Amino acid sequence: MTDLVTAAVWNIDGDGGRNGERRHLALDVLTEYEPDIFLQQEAKFSRERGSELLHATEKRLSLRGFLSARNPYADADIATAVYLRPTMFDVVEARPRAKPWWLHPCHVVARLGTCPVPLNLISLHMCCFDANQRLTEACWTAMHAGAVTLAAGDTNSYPRNPERLALPDWAAVTDRAHMVHRTYLDADGHRRSDTRPDAALTDAGYLDLARYSADHLGQPEALNATAGQCKPDQGGPQRIDRAYGTGGLASALHSVEVVDNDDTREASDHSLLILRFYRVRLERVLTLPLAAAHTAEALR
What is the spatial distance between Cα 102 and Cα 79, in angstroms, rounded to a whole number? Predict the structure, then answer.
């Protein structure tokens, strides 16, 4: 629908395979939603063979793609990606990022049509094995809370506020390495579910857009699980893939949908997030007076 701007967020497990074993299915799913923005995580093979997979995605979705900066110091240089509809967005800058991330985020700054205020788009994949590293990464993301920003992806951590999904019972989790990866030691030496990245982002002024959708738009299904549905040994279904907005993005939000079906489960071990924004409201946000007012309100 031309009156909506659609953003897709998806951690496509292993990039759908080096030779596209599951990627064609993932693109079939994405094509149904006609995203104007696509924030991908685990773009593991998208640099190979002259960025063959990136270009195939561009062609299939009619989008322009960008990959995060290379990170030779990571155990595995797994890229993140941002794709944008070139007839809708003009790219101002694709920013390289190094420290402090384990896997570099892809950060693209773009303008929607003739709107004067740029939109920051950050595809992020927080560290899977170190809670302290994730907190550092969240604090880096907090630096962009003073702008109009959509930061989304796999946080490998949990919401701070209680939701319908109870946090894992770590005493019952049989994958003990996973328990260590998803918890941190408190001052008394007890293991706690890692909710600190969410706390850092929301304290900085970001809004969890799915939470906003549930609380203010009457869409409780926006808080459905996004991963872990097939991993009972790791604590079961949880909402670890999240989208955060600042600068008034929530005021333009139409809906948040978690797409979890046979096709998404065959393509990846993460569900697909679909966020829709009213274009006219988004254009209003991306003007200097409104953007400044929303940012000031969020940071109070």
Answer: 11
Kindly state the helix (H) or strand (E) to which residue 59 belongs, with its residue range: helix 48-61
Spatial separation of the C-alpha atoms in residues 147 and 113, rounded to whole Å: 18
Give the start-end residues of each E strand in the chain. Answer: 4-11, 37-43, 64-67, 79-84, 89-95, 106-112, 119-125, 149-154, 183-185, 191-193, 207-208, 241-246, 253-259, 272-278
Q: Name which of 126, 125, 124, 121 is nearest 147 in CA terms.
A: 121
Q: What burial class does residue 188 get, using C-beta atoms within 10 Å of its C-beta: 0-12 exposed, 13-18 middle, 19+ buried? A: exposed
Tokens 């982002």, residue located: 201
Count of residues for the chain? 300
pLDDT digit string, tens, across residues 10-36: 999 999 998 878 999 999 999 999 999
Predicted confidence at residue 19, as pLDDT, reads 83
